[in-house]
Amino acid sequence: MNCRSEVLEITVETRQVEEAMLALLHTILLHRSTGKFHYKKEGTYSIGTVGTQDIDCDFIDFTFVRVSSEELDRVIRKAVCEFKDALNNTGSDGMGQISLEFYQKKKSRWPFSDECIPWEVWSIKVNVVNLANEQERQICREKVGEKLGEKVINVVEVINRHEYLPKMPTQSEVDNVFDTSLKDVQPYLYKITYQITDSLGTSVSTTMRRLIKDTLAL
């Protein structure tokens, strides 16, 4: 099985990291989740509904849609907060990458553990810049909102390509494909990881500041 790999990149100021990551991760998971499976007998099942919720960002001019599941939001938010704290510990400008990997399990014979086979990985590269004043922050608020809108459209276009998805499992195999631990939604099995780079390339930092300066000059 070939694993699909998609890369998104965005530049934000420090206080926008959490909201930008939540917007992108929740957008992906919205399209990679189903309602809960209700099995009547082996091979026969119904699928529950998935509610959605509009979320307005505080530091970005942007509203995103997520699955209406507090449990899923807590899991995603915890991972994002750990990533944000790690970025903050680098000091000033910094960069990192948070990845959302979807996988399925392949049962192995005892005493070996199950094999986890990835089928899709989303990597979000984040460049963090520090801005000088509130005027710059307001411009960044608008520009990041525009960029996030572009990224969300990109995510939807990729997901609509109708490429490989794990086949719908039987009742005995559902835990090999879906995360069934949540009571109100059933995402495909996934894991979130991140890595941090200590310093941001000057070209990225300069580009963002030039963009802000050009906007101020209009």
Describe this structure in words.
The longest helix is centred in the last third of the chain and has 26 residues, at 134-159. The model has no long low-confidence stretch (mean pLDDT 88). It is built from four helices and ten strands. It has helices at residues 17-30, 70-88, 134-159, 202-217, and strands at residues 4-13, 33-34, 37-41, 44-47, 52-56, 63-67, 94-106, 115-129, 186-187, 190-197. The strands form four sheets. The protein has a four-stranded mixed beta sheet with strand order 1-8-7-10. Strands 2-9 form a two-stranded antiparallel ribbon. Strand 3 (37-41) and strand 4 (44-47) form a beta hairpin. The chain is of the alpha+beta class and 218 residues long.
Q: What are the SSEs and their pairings?
A:
Elements: E1 4-13, H1 17-30, E2 33-34, E3 37-41, E4 44-47, E5 52-56, E6 63-67, H2 70-88, E7 94-106, E8 115-129, H3 134-159, E9 186-187, E10 190-197, H4 202-217
Parallel strand pairs: 1-8
Antiparallel strand pairs: 2-9, 3-4, 5-6, 7-8, 7-10
Given helix and strand content, the structural type is: alpha+beta
Average pLDDT score: 88
Give the terminus-to-terminus CA distance: 51 Å
| Broad shape | elongated
Q: Percentage of helical residues?
A: 25-40%
Please mark out the parts with pLDDT under 50 across 5 or more consecutive residues, or reply none. none
Beta-strand residue fraction: 25-35%
Report Rg: 19 Å
**Strand order in space, largest sheet:** 1-8-7-10
Question: How many strands, what sense, and barrel or not for the largest sheet?
Answer: 4 strands, mixed
Order of helices and strands: EHEEEEEHEEHEEH
Number of helices: 4
Number of strands: 10
